[in-house]
Amino acid sequence: xxxxxxxxxxxxxxxxxxxxxxxxxxxxxxxxxxxxxxxxxxxxxxxxxxxxxxxxxxxxxxxxxxxxxxxxxxxxxxxxxxxxxxxxxxxxxxxxxxxxxxxxxxxxxxxxxxxxxxxxxxxxxxxxxxxxxxxxxxxxxxxxxxxxxxxxxxxxxxxxxxxxxxxxxxxxxxxxxxxxxxxxxxxxxxxxxxxxxxxxxxxxxxxxxxxxxxxxxxxxxxxxxxxxxxxxxxxxxxxxxxxxxxxxxxxxxxxxxxxxxxxxxxxxxxxxxxxxxxxxxxxxxxxxxxxxxxxxxxxxxxxxxxxxxxxxxxxxxxxxxxxxxxxxxxxxxxxxxxxxxxxxxxxxxxxx
Length: 352
Prior knowledge:
Elements: H1 8-17, E1 27-28, E2 58-62, H2 66-78, E3 81-85, H3 88-97, E4 99-103, E5 109-111, E6 114-116, E7 125-128, H4 135-138, H5 144-147, E8 151-154, H6 161-168, E9 173-174, E10 177-180, E11 183-187, E12 190-193, E13 199-202, H7 212-225, E14 228-231, H8 235-255, H9 260-266, H10 268-285, H11 291-300, H12 308-314, H13 321-334, H14 340-350
Parallel strand pairs: 2-3, 2-7, 3-6, 4-12, 7-8, 8-9, 13-14
Antiparallel strand pairs: 1-14, 4-5, 10-13, 11-12
């Protein structure tokens, strides 16, 4: 989702309110500078390290697009051993020219990475950053017998991919995650990141879990890169905290061919209804959500913002309608919850 221009203070206040007071809060790995609010911070030299890391990670990034390329570039600059998994043509560009990041938040730089079409050696962590429609075919680049017991951190939208990845890679440790950033691939190997924040939530799980130390190690590296890393204890909150506002906005901006400002005025009744439906289903799934706070969050977004699903539809690319709208309907059906407005929007978009 594009969130550029949102007041960080208001974003944090609204985002925090979406989770009830009874839930354990996230572990924040590094405090922001005193003159910044907790939502995110501009990386300073205290947080953003260049050159070889003391404890370099072996990293693969499946899909070095807007989000994957951002993660790959920043970890490579830190000194981690980064391999980008992508098609032959993109791999050739990355091998020849590396990754170039243009960002007011992380800085602008170019960095060398390894690129290939197939994972051929074990890694510490695999970031899955393709979009949902391409997930199954893209995973052919990551053989289970090579991935072994690595951490897998999926950065795609939706709620159902975590279970799918765990079934696909039974020996790996798949971590529920949610990224909030505006970052776009403008050309192969060229990433533009424009939001004044880059927040990554990683479901921490039990502190005594076998993978806990490995996850903290990865989170620490990401924090050193400049990401605002949170480690909530609730996996369902990590997934539904984003899904419950992303899905209504994606459905309505795409269905009505309109930016967020039009959706929240001309189509406000539908927005309120779908937010209510999504939060009701999310609560049934175990998430602690507040529909009023989700609406307030939507009201703070820039009026000109367009969802990534809307942009994909306009460009004739496959969309995340099944991962977002379909995922919401399937979750509702599991709990016997009627979601008439969401059902209508999904039907309209799938029958175009």
